[in-house]
Design a protein that fits this description.
The chain contains 15 helices and 16 strands. By secondary structure, it is α/β, with parallel strands linked by helices. The protein folds into 3 domains: about 150 residues, NAD(P)-binding Rossmann-like Domain (Rossmann fold, 3-Layer(aba) Sandwich); about 160 residues, Dihydrodipicolinate Reductase, domain 2; about 80 residues, 2-Layer Sandwich (Alpha-Beta Plaits), CATH 3.30.70.260. The mean pLDDT is about 95. Bound molecules: L-homoserine. L-homoserine binds next to α8.
């Protein structure tokens, strides 16, 4: 059996997991998958990682481009992340005729078109199962077992860090900062957690999923994105009271007027399967015309889960080396427009801090009616020492543009102190 030579760039958490799996399961992979994977080069700028991972000087280098240029290397694994040097590395690896495995969602959601076109033109594999949903096998099934279907929607919980935080905020009433500190201590959140908590990680993932599911290019910039930074424990508690759970949902629906795609905190029915996806777990939910509803579930963050998906891709890339490719990707033939967020129609929850006196609810109701927003329910709780009350509204289905215009006017009413929150409600029927 001819060994397949692997060059690995990036020895962070996931890269370390890949080294560990390639060592621990080398013989099993030979037996079960029929490929002999040899890690021949590994690069990182942090030299301490070489000793930590038992990589000798014949394998280790601080220069990622040396891995790509090494004529021995058959498959380049890019685990550097980001859209800077990683972009150059992936392009250079493909130009050098190497198959590429990457977990880099931001790169593919931004420069996917260029990268897939180059891989196609050269007949090379570019595999990226670990870019979406950590260890969950989702991209493979999308390009194999489910291709008989037209999909009308894909949605899910695709960020483990924020799902862990929301779970703790829901179950233990933690505030955002305490939940984030816990997630960081457990190694889920990055030291700079912006991509996780502000929703960009989830936005890149839903852009990749939507592109594949709808066969139409969607990029990161197409995704209206709102993270969980502004989410207050009070809203999570009100949600529970009315039978809902708050999740950071990434959604894409195929509509008559184009792709409706977005990432934001969402109230979903507490009884829906996605509401019970807790902790660092992710779940991706799809609706196809023949297969019906599907849900894929598993660990969405952490070294082991992502490394498992990367090694799976390495095995597939090794199997197809020199013999054509069945690499996953987006044919993106359909060129569907992206629908403006203002045209979204859904139910909305919002919380106001108002003066507790006669006529306040009527004044708010008048503005809502002027903007064609119909109220479904209202909760008013207590009065604070300074005479203010908290009022929670849930609307019937309304247009986003109308609700935003109404709230802008409500904010200006002199009886309204603040619009404390606005959360979209999805019944996921
Ligand atoms: N940071 C991501 C998450 C994992 O928390 O889900 C990598 O995409």
């Amino acid at each position: 059996m001819k060994p397949i030579k692997i060059g690995l760039i990036g020895l962070g958490t996931v890269g370390g997991g890949v080294v560990e799996i390639l060592k621990a399961h080398h013989d099993d992979i030979v037996r079960h998958a029929g490929v002999d994977l040899q890690l021949v080069r590994a690069a990182d700028t942090n030299e301490a990682r070489f000793a930590q991972l038992g990589l000798g000087p014949d394998v280790a280098t601080t220069d990622g481009f040396a891995v790509i240029a090494d004529p021995e290397v058959d498959v380049v694994v890019e685990l550097v992340g980001g859209t800077g040097i990683a972009h150059k590395m992936v392009i250079e690896a493909l130009k050098a005729g190497k198959s590429v495995v990457t977990a880099n969602k931001a790169l593919l959601a931004t420069h996917g078109e260029e990268i897939f076109a180059l891989a196609d033109a050269r007949g090379l594999d570019i595999r990226f199962e670990a870019a979406v949903g950590g260890g969950i096998p989702i991209l493979g099934p999308l390009t194999h077992s489910t291709t008989a279907n037209e999909f009308s929607r894909v949605l899910g919980i695709v960020n483990g860090t924020t799902n862990y935080m929301l779970t703790r905020m829901t179950e233990a009433g933690l505030d955002f900062d305490t939940a984030l500190k816990e997630a960081q201590d457990l190694g889920y959140a990055e030291a700079d957690p912006t991509a996780d908590v502000d929703g960009y990680d989830a936005a890149a993932k839903i852009a990749i999923l939507a592109s594949m599911v709808f066969n139409s290019r969607v990029t990161l910039n197409d995704v209206p994105t709102q993270g969980i930074r502004e989410l207050a424990p009070a809203d999570i508690a009100y949600a529970a009271e009315i039978g809902y759970t708050v999740k950071l949902l990434a959604l894409a629906n195929k509509t008559d007027s184009g792709i409706d795609i977005r990432v934001h905190p969402t109230m979903i029915p507490a009884k829906h399967q996605l509401a019970s996806v807790d902790g660092v777990y992710n779940a991706i939910y799809l609706t196809g015309d023949f297969v019906g509803d599907l849900m894929f579930f598993g660990e969405g963050a952490g070294a082991g889960a992502a490394a498992s998906a990367v090694v799976g891709d390495i095995v597939e890339a090794a199997r197809t080396l020199g013999g054509g490719t069945d690499a996953i990707g987006c044919t993106c033939t359909d060129n569907l427009p992206i629908r403006a967020l203002d045209d979204l129609v859904c139910r909305y929850y919002f919380r106001l801090i108002v003066a507790d006196r006669a006529g306040v609810i009527a004044a708010v109701a008048r503005v809502l009616a002027d903007h064609r927003v119909s109220m479904q329910s209202l909760i008013q709780r207590g009065t604070t020492a300074d005479g203010m009350a908290e009022v929670v509204y849930v609307t019937h289905a309304a247009r986003e543009g109308d609700i935003q215009a109404a709230l802008a006017e409500i904010r200006e009413l002199d009886v309204v102190s603040s619009v404390a929150s606005l959360i979209r409600v999805e019944d996921l029927a």
